[in-house]
Amino acid sequence: MNNRNITQGNKEISIGISACLLGAKVRFDGGHKRDRYINDLLSQHFRFVPFCPEVAIGMPTPREPIRLVDEQGNIRAVGTRDASQDFTVQLTGYGAKVADSIDTLCGFVFKKDSPSCGMERVKVYVDNRMPERKGRGLFAAQIMQRHPLLPVEEEGRLNDPVLRENFINRVFVFSRWKELQHVGITKAALIDFHTRHKYLLLAHNQQAYRQLGRILASMKDYDLSTLAQQYIERVMAILKKRASRKTHVNVLQHLVGFLRPKLNNYDRVEMLDTINAYARGEYPLIVPITLLKHHFRCNPHPFVDRQVYLDPHPRAMMLRNTI
């Protein structure tokens, strides 16, 4: 396939990250939380931009740890031993400052459980009761609130193959959208973006994809910039929903339809058997995808050749080998 319109790895794609995950000794105990997967594999494909909110606001290393407390509905970040040490305003202000300067980022990886960087389920203390996992780090909250379309994830969740593929998939889609914004969004370019992402979106939500199509069909009735913003908001929301084996099978079967006039009976049966084996969980997604790509190399189709679905991220990342 001549599918070169799909990003195959680009170190210019920038992702924000909690600095301790890269090995920076910025933790409260003077240590780090270096993540092997992030440093050994993801760093080959992305440029990481590190942030440590605590150090940035002037806290020393090592230092007294902080925690989130709920004071009559107000979440605050205070010292674990000296609750009079309150860093709420500083952490929130730094988060807002960073949020105003990261328009070039295409994703963010946060440190889980951190009172500054935790994305979700951070411990919140109320009086003398057991803490509840209902909080979000104050720095992370500002980033996520001010950049709702930005793909975000925690390093712990990246150990889940499905969540990992979903996050990186969204990063590449968001990067392609930013490239489109850079060159200038036109009606033709917007329709082209939608067309190239057809089967990727169908794998996540078939009904939502069709709704997007109806929106674009009425493009003449809307201001283009407003329509484009509504469009990408819906796209990123669709992609947050994890694709299932069932939805992938539906897309694979659609793609086989382009090959039916070209395949002999043996190849057609093999293709369908492979898809069915994937549906039963006997193969990872990469197996039917690889067989499909083989047949499309032998029988190229101009529409399929431009589909992001078959090459949404670099092959070397092996993201579809485990889902």
Describe the structure.
This protein is an alpha/beta fold. The chain has two domains: 14-159, no CATH class; 170-323, no CATH class. It is 45% helix and 12% strand. It contains 13 helices and eight strands. The protein has helices at 36-40, 53-56, 88-99, 138-146, 161-183, 187-196, 198-202, 206-217, 224-240, 245-259, 265-279, 286-298, 302-305, and strands at 14-18, 47-51, 66-71, 74-79, 105-110, 122-125, 132-135, 152-154.
Structural class computed from helices and strand pairing: alpha/beta
| H and E string | EHEHEEHEEEHEHHHHHHHHH
Shape call: elongated
Q: What is the total number of structural domains?
A: 2
Give the strand content: 5-15%
Mean pLDDT: 94
List low-pLDDT spans. Answer: 1-9
Alpha plus pi helix count: 13
Strands of the widest sheet, in order across it, are: 2-1-5-8
Counting DSSP E segments of at least 2 residues, the number of strands comes to 8
